[in-house]
Amino acid sequence: MTITSSNIMDRTFIKRMLTIALPISLQNLIFSSLNMVDTVMIGRLGEAEIAAVGLANQYFFILNLLLFGINSGGAIFTAQFWGKKDTSNIKRVLGITLILGGGLSILFAVLAFFNPEFLLRIFTKDRTVIGLGSKYLRIVSLSYFITAISFAYSFILRSIGQAKLPMVVSGVSLLTNTLLNYLLIFGNFGFPQMGIQGAALATLVSRGLEIVFLLTVVYRQKMVLAGRIKELFHISRNLFKRYIDTALPVILNEGFWVVGMTMYSISYARISTEAIASVQIANTVQSIFMVVAFGLGNSCAVMLGNSIGAKNEKEAIDYGFKFSILSVVTGILLGVLIFTTAPFILSFFNISDTVYQNAKYILMVISFFMTFKIFNTILIIGILRSGGDTKFSLILEMSSVWLYGVPLAFIGAHVLHLPIHWVVALVTSEEVVKAIFGVPRVISKKWVRNVVESIE
To answer: Transmembrane segments in this chain: where (predicted)?
Structure first.
C-alpha cells in the first residue's frame, strides 16, 4: 500500500484520531505539568528531597508499568470487542483487570508500608535520601489499590472511545493534588507544615477523590462499564485463557522493561545524588512533551483494535502506516521544541548550577533521540499490541533494553566513569536499535491478529 500526503490527511481519519488523542493528550499534559509543579515545590525543600521522592516514585513506577501491562492487555480485547459490539465481554475484561491489578497493588502496598527502607536501599546508599523517601513511601503506598481500580476503568473507557471522562477525572484529581501540596508541604493558610510527608498525603487524598468521582459518573450515567458484580466477574475459562495468552507478554514486557528502567536509576543514583536529581528533573520535563506520543499511541490502539474486531484488516493496516508517518513528523517537531526550550523550563527549578547543567545536557540528549522515541511508542503501544502481536513486542523491547541499554548504563557509569548526560545518551540510543527492528515488522503486516474471534 502506498501512503501519500493526501490520504494521510484524510478528514475522516484525522477527525477520529483527534477525538481520541486530544482528551488523552490533555489528560497526560495535566498530569505531567502538575507533576513538574510538584517537583518544583519539593525542590524548594532541597535536592535530597527531590532525589527521595524520585526514588520512592521509582518503586511506584514499577507498579505503574505492571498495571499498565495488565490494563493494556485488557485494552487489546476491549477495542476489538467494541468493534464487534460485544459489551458483555467488555465488562468481563474489566473484571479480569480489576482482579489482577487490585491483587498486585495490595502486594506492592504491603511491601512499601512495612519495609520502605529496604526498598529504597536498592536504589541508593544515601541515608538522608532513604530516611526522607521512607516517610513519603509509607503514606503514598496507601493509594496504590485506589490507583489500580482507577487504571482499570480509565483504560477500558479509552478503549471504547470514551476518553473525555478519564481526562476530566484526572484533571480534578491532579489539581486537588497540587493545591494540597501547596498547603501541606509548606504549611500555608494555617495548614500543618509537613514537608515531604505533606506531598504524600496530598497524593493519597487526591487519588481517593479521583476514584469516587469516576465510579459515581460511570454508575449514575449507566455507562457500558456500569456492571453488577456478577457481570464483571462471571468470566469464562475461554476468555481468561485467551486474555492470559495475549496479555501475559504485555505484562512481562512492562515488568522486565520497568526493571530495566530501575537498573538505569540504580546506575544513575550510584554516580551521585546530583546525578539522579538531574535525571529526575529531565524526565519530569520530558514527560510533558511525551503527552502527544501517548495520545497518538492510544488513539492508534483504539482505532486499529476496533477495525480488527470488526474484521476490517485492510483499514487497520492503513491506519498503522498513517500513524507510523505521523509519529516521525511529531518526533522531529518535539525534539526541536525540547532543545530550544530546555534552558527556559529549567529556570523554574530551585537547583544548584551542577544539577541545572546536568539536566540541560540530558534534555539535549533526549531531544536528539525524540523521533525514535515517539516512533517506538506508537509502534509498541499503538500498532503491535492493538494487533495482538504481543510476543514480538516483548522480544523487541526486552532485547533492546537488556542486551543493549542496561549493559551500556553500567559500562558508561562505572567502567568509563562518563558524565551523567553521556551515560543517558548511551542508554537512550537503544531507541534507535528498537526502531531498526520494528520498521520491518510494521511493513510485513504480520502484526494483524483478531484475538476476540470465537469468544462468546
So the answer is: 58-81, 93-116, 136-156, 168-187, 199-219, 240-264, 284-304, 325-349, 361-381, 401-424
